[in-house]
Structures are given as structure tokens and as C-alpha cells.
Amino acid sequence: MASLKTSILRRFQSTFTSKPIPSKTHFHAPIPDSAFPKGYVLTGIHAGVKKKAGVPDLGIILSTSPRPASAAACFTRNAFKAAPVVVSQQVLEKSQGRVRAVVVNSGCANAVTGKQGMEDAWAMVSATDALLEPVPQKNETMVMSTGVIGQNLPIQKILTGIASQSPKTPGNTSTLGSSFEAWELAARAFMTTDTFPKLRARTFSINGKEYRLAGMDKGAGMIHPNMGPPSGQLHATLLGCILTDAAVSPRSLQSALTYAVDRSFNSISVDGDMSTNDTILVLANGAAAEGAQEIDEKTDPASFDVFKQELTNFAIDLAKLVVRDGEGATKFVTVSVNGATSYEDAHKIASRISTSALVKTALYGEDANWGRILAATGSIPLATPLDPSRVSVSFIPTDGTVPLRLLVNGEPEKVNEARATEIISSEDLEIQVELGLGNESAKYWTCDFSYEYVRINGDYRT
Amino acid sequence: MASLKTSILRRFQSTFTSKPIPSKTHFHAPIPDSAFPKGYVLTGIHAGVKKKAGVPDLGIILSTSPRPASAAACFTRNAFKAAPVVVSQQVLEKSQGRVRAVVVNSGCANAVTGKQGMEDAWAMVSATDALLEPVPQKNETMVMSTGVIGQNLPIQKILTGIASQSPKTPGNTSTLGSSFEAWELAARAFMTTDTFPKLRARTFSINGKEYRLAGMDKGAGMIHPNMGPPSGQLHATLLGCILTDAAVSPRSLQSALTYAVDRSFNSISVDGDMSTNDTILVLANGAAAEGAQEIDEKTDPASFDVFKQELTNFAIDLAKLVVRDGEGATKFVTVSVNGATSYEDAHKIASRISTSALVKTALYGEDANWGRILAATGSIPLATPLDPSRVSVSFIPTDGTVPLRLLVNGEPEKVNEARATEIISSEDLEIQVELGLGNESAKYWTCDFSYEYVRINGDYRT
């Protein structure tokens, strides 16, 4: 009997041969020093949070621009906000959105660590404030942590590491710099189970004037961010830091970031689990043109719109890198939902498909089991109920060949299984769902669910 | 570097040694014929929906009681309702809650099969109606299907199989009966990836009069039901059929079932994916006492409450069997959320913890990574926001030994890792979350996430 056969298999089969996980390291490549924003020095050092010697686990970013940089952030909406999330939020308030530094550690999330955790996060802020020149100010540093939840930081090691970067420290070993190597070290300090440092830069211009954006992020698991501006209730471990040498007012910087995060970091999923630490920061130090007027949504909407779109596209690039490096991922899948009556409905469905264990294991198995896509699509309540007779589903190959229609207006197509398998076997793939109800659409980026995901997360702490 | 190490592992590690999946077959045992409700004949035969010869894939249940049985059902709320779900709902309406038969097939879900699917489901109803004695009536059969989505039924094979059970068919090979063997065959006809038939019976009494309940269900994957009464918008593949020889009015039978399903089948999860077919049916034929008055919520609330509670406890037993047999499951985990201000909030949190990929992989890895439980708990919006300083989390061993407190009022305990690992290493385990906000609580039943789950669902159709 099939059931008996399954039973025997499940009891005695004890080894699996997995597909090789494609190397992702080619997604990291050298960037010319000239492409990075002006007025920042960075480094990443081994402070000892992680056991293995030499692994960067502490990152420091300082703005050297005479005026404090405008700062904005989106934080996790998880009810259990990690100490660094609470502290960074307070720093933003106290500094009225003007800061000069960012400090980040990997290896320990400083989350659910009670009062000690808050003291430790503040100690990291003060120690980094002390590095600032010419005149150190209080509360000019934002702090981020990522790693295991529920354990306290080895705070003395971290403080010693921060102090080692101060010219005032006798025999200091400061490695702060502005070269590609310095940016790369900082990016490495963000990494946990990431297999490559996530670092990108781009140049854009407004009214003929050139500005630069650069940023780094991390995250491979516990990735299903839901981040809002500081005012919002907090939720989401994805960390990201975006730096620009444009001058933007704090209020407008937050407005642009909130818009960008909804369409980038809040539209990716690796495993559907929200972290207590997710944080995306932006600093705009105006170093590209000292004394230039700040870009502002109200006074110069045209320039602001250019900046907002550049920031959004850049954030999408950084967000995709996290999915590309998803724990155990062998595929990079774009889920597009079109024809909705609202962005929210489209986004909800794209999110549900992107987090379905059955869809993700079928992708890993390269089984074109599109019925699971339908089941996921229909499984959530929406503002406008679905009309099954209007729903269509297609696989879109990324090699430019013709799409494969699986379901058209609720009726299954005679699917060419060979073609379906061909498309689903490629590393990149797009699943397109058309609702036929309206003109709103949303995109989500996800990966498959592999043996390696289970292995990595079955023994993360050991 | 850790990241490099991970990278190498993830690129080249290609085999895994999994823990042996414990056999679940001892959860199926013989039941005395006398324990089954009176007035039903059943069978399970191989009609040819499944490839493998001899595997039951068609189940038939007939009530032989002179009067039609009262019927009630809860159906999936998925927007893509499978044809048998739509048809069974219409049968309930047309028959005004009075039916005499149930027909079920496994191997093909007849879901997302368009017009042909509806015709096929109706054909199964008519063919089974024709088996009813003494006088066949139209629309007295409820139909259920489970298996692959998006494929049409081999309807001729199914109709031939149904007809083979009719005494009128020349050379018929009817195997309909009322012995344990007949009930077991019917239960086997429900199975897909189940490793054992799920069949239970219990006797209860109201006012000194004895009644019997018996039922069967199936489901091992795509298990995260959300079922409502026919009136409700439809969602959920879990199939279940509960039969009793008590006499209960259709309206009261539905009321009791809706209450029971919310606290049983709607409180289990294997993989968080809702099916298009989930259906739980109840038939009450009154055969225990022909002509006896029907139990009714309005006219005899005391008797009704006894029946409702018996039905609920019985439904919980059947629901737990599905989790126990979850695809690739090595553990049976009870998630209890207490101290909520509403059942809905408690149920939402229990559901989120029970579906967290990170919690489930940690359970498989027997890693007491309780921080993931916290992250899941805090990740969903609630009617009453959480106060982290009031939240406590404990592991409750099922061997009666002392519970292990992990977090107390938001502060982590110094956890005895050895003890935590000891508890998490047992096959059965309870995770208890105390919110400290109110007096409402909810329970959820889930399993772990293993290599086998990925294997089973990576090639379900092949």
C-alpha cells in the first residue's frame, strides 16, 4: 500500500542527497573607491562576540562631515523589541534626527535581555559617541545588533573594540578608512549566516549635481520584515545601513525611507519569521556639497521625488541580496500579483505565496505543483474577495523565453509538464498571479525551502 | 570565517543523516464491533484513482436507519473551494440537513478543475444515491475528495467502483459491512500520505441512555484548517467524518460541530498551508433508539451540552491524530497560550508559534532556542497589545516532571541547558506561554519540521 510504502520510507530512509547550493559569492565584487559617498569612515573588526578569531563582529561607521548627518530609520514591529531597537529609537528622538555614527555587532542580538540589555546598548552608544571629532556629543550614535536572542552581550569586549578605534587610545589600532576595503570590512561585521558581504553603491544626480548612495545589509534567516517608522508600533533580523552624501532634511529622509522600505525590505521573505531586531538606517551627511540646502519634500518636491525613487530602487537591490543569500536557498523567486483592487490585497497574497512551505518545498523539488500556489492565494481574507473565475497563474522564465500559462480565468490549462519543469529548474523564476479585479499590483521576493534550511536552523546555536 | 565556513558547508555538504521518524502505526488498533454506532454500513475499495493496485482509494458510508440522518458540516474557507466542497454544501441545502450517505476518494482532490470537476462531483453523488435502500432519493449523499490539486478525477473508474457495491449490479462484489474491518477499510480509503488509518470510537450516555460516536479522518500535509459552517465564507486538506447513532436536530448538530471544530481541527497545524478541500462531516442517524425525539439546543439544552462536549472531545482526539502523523514529524507539540484578554488573541499567538519555521526546525534539531518562540509571539498584531514585562515562557515535560521556566515576566531565566535539551528531546512536549493580561486561553497542536517534510513535499506528485 502507498501509505505503508510511505511509512517504511519515512521510518528508515535516513540520508538525503541534496542539490548543491549554488555559490552566491559572485554577488560580491570590488567597487571603485570613487563610487562611495564622501564624508564617511568605516571599519569592521573582531571584538570577540563571535568565537572564531579574525571574524569581523563589530562595525563602526562615522560621518566626518562638519554638520551632523540627517538620520531616519525603520524598525521591527515585533512586540519584543530588542534593546538596540529601543535605544536607536530614543537616540533619533533625543538628537531630533541628527546623528554622526552607527555601531553594529553580529553574533548576539541583545534581544529579550531585560535591563542589562538596555544598559549594554547605551554603553555602545556612549563609547562610539566618544570617537566623534572634533567635539564628541552625546546621543549621536545609532546602534544595531544581530545574532542569538536571549543572551547578554560580552559588553567589555565590545567596548574595548570600540575604544581601539580612537586616536586618543594609547597604542590604538584604528583601521577606520574610506576605501573599498574599509566599506567591505564594515559590511562583513554585519554577517551572521550570510555567505557573502552585502555591499552596493550607486551614483545619481539631481539638477546636474552628482550624489552617491552606498549601503550594506545582512540577513539570511528569520527574514520576514515588517518595519515601520519610529512613530509606528514596532515589529521584524534584517539589518541595513544606507549612507548618502546628499543633504536631505530629517523629516523628508524618513518619508522617503518609509516609502522605500515598504516596497523593498518589507516585501521579502526567507522563512516567514519576523525578527525582534530588524532595522534599516539611513544617514545623509550632505558632504557632496557642504553648505548646500537640504532636499525637502515640501520646498522642493521635484528633487525629493528623484531622491525617493533612487533610494527605493537602491533599497530593492539591497533587499534582493538578502533573499539571494537565503539560508539553504537554491532559487531566487519573484512573486508578482497583478489586477488587485488595492496594493494591500496584492501585497497580502504575494506574501502568503512567498511564505507557503508547500510552495517553497515544491520549488526546491522543482515540481511544478501550481495547485499549491492557488491554495495559498485563496487562503487569506481580503478587502475585496477573490473571484476564482478571474484568476490566472503563469510561470515567467527569466531567460526571455515565452511564459507558461498554468491557469487562465480559473480554468486549468493543458500544461506542458516538460516546459514547466524546464522553467522551474532554473535558478531564477517569476510566479505571476493575475486577479482580474483592478489595477493595483505588488511584488515579493522569496526563495525555496531546502534540506539545508532545516540543517542550518536545527542547530543554529551549536 | 564563520560565514566562509557556512558558505563552504552549504555549497558542498550534500547528504544529511536524519533522525529516524518514529513509527506511528501503534496509534491504530482494533476496536470491538460493539463500540461502533448502529445503523451504518461502510467499505473502502480500490477504484483505480491511485496507481498502486489494492490500495483503498474510494470510501462509501451508508446509513441504514429508516429515517434520513441529520447532517452538519464545516468546510474550508479557501477562496478556491474544490468541487466536492461546493457540491456537499449544495446537498446540505437541498436536503435541508437530512442525508443518508457519504462518498470519499483519495488520490485526486478534484480541486481547481473547472466545470468538469463539478460534473464529476455530482456524478459521485448520484451514483451513491442509487445505492440507498429501500427507496433511493436524490441528493442524500455528501462527497469528499483529497489528493493532488488541478487534475480531473478518473470518473469512470470511480463510478464503476461505486456501482460494484450495489446488490442490483449483476455479479456485484459489495463489501459493505458494519464490522471493525469494514470501518477500517473506509478509514484507509481516506489516506494520502498518512502512515496509519485514523479511526476512533467512543460510547457516551445521556440520561442513562447509551449512544456511540465513531469517526475517521486523514491528513498529514497541507494542514492548517480554517473551517466554518456552510453559511460562512469558505476556506482549508483535512477530511473527517464523524458518525453517531444519537438523534440530533440538524440545526443543533451544526451548532455543536461548529463549536467542536474551532477547538479541534481549527487548532492544529502541520505546515501552515490551508487546503481547498478541508471538510468535516457529521451524521446522526438516531439508530440507537428508533423514533426517539431528537436532541435539540433549544428544547433540551442540558442534553445538548452533554452531546456538544462529547463531540468536541472526540473531535480533539481525531484532530490530534493528524498532527501525530504530520508529514516527517518526529515530535508532537502542544502549544498553550494563557492569560490573554480574549480567546481570539490567545488562538492567534498559539497559531503563529505553531507555524513558525524557526520554532519547528529548532524542535527537530532539539535545540532549546526559546528566543524564536518569543519572536513568533511578538510578531502578530493583537486586539490587546502584549506587555513584554508580563510575558513568561516554559517548557512543560509530559512525563510529569517539573516544568522548566525559560522567561519570567520578560526576564530570561538562567536556563539549565541540559534540562532544556532533556525535555525538548522527548517525542511529546508542551510549550506554555503566559501573557499576564487576562484569563482567556487557547491550545494548538503542532509538530516539528524535518528533512523528511522537505523530501515528501519536494516530490509529492512524482
Description of the structure:
The structure is a homodimer of 462-residue chains. With 462 residues, chain A is α+β, with helices and mostly antiparallel strands. The first copy, chain A, is 30% helix and 24% strand. Chain A contains twelve helices and 19 strands. The radius of gyration of chain A is 23 Å and the shape is globular. Chain A starts with a helix and ends with a helix. Chains A and B meet through helix 1, strand 1, helix 9, helix 10 and strand 17 of A and helix 1, strand 1, helix 9, helix 10 and strand 17 of B. Strand 1 (15-17) of chain A pairs antiparallel with strand 1 (15-17) of chain B. Chains A, B: It is an enzyme of class 2 (transferase). Chains A, B: Belongs to the ArgJ family.
Any idea what the shape of chain A is?
globular
Distance between the termini of chain A: 40 Å
Question: Total number of β-strand segments of chain A?
Answer: 19
Please indicate the percent range of residues of chain A in DSSP E strands (runs of 2 or more).
Answer: 15-25%
Work out the radius of gyration of chain A: 23 Å
Q: Average the pLDDT over all residues of chain A and give the rounded result.
A: 89
Number of helices, counting only DSSP H or I runs of 4 residues or more of chain A: 12
Helix percentage range of chain A: 25-40%
Largest sheet of chain A: 7 strands, mixed
Low-confidence stretches of chain A: 1-13, 231-236
Structural class of chain A: alpha+beta
Of all chain pairs, the largest interface belongs to: A-B, 101 and 100 residues
Q: What is the quaternary state of this protein?
A: homodimer
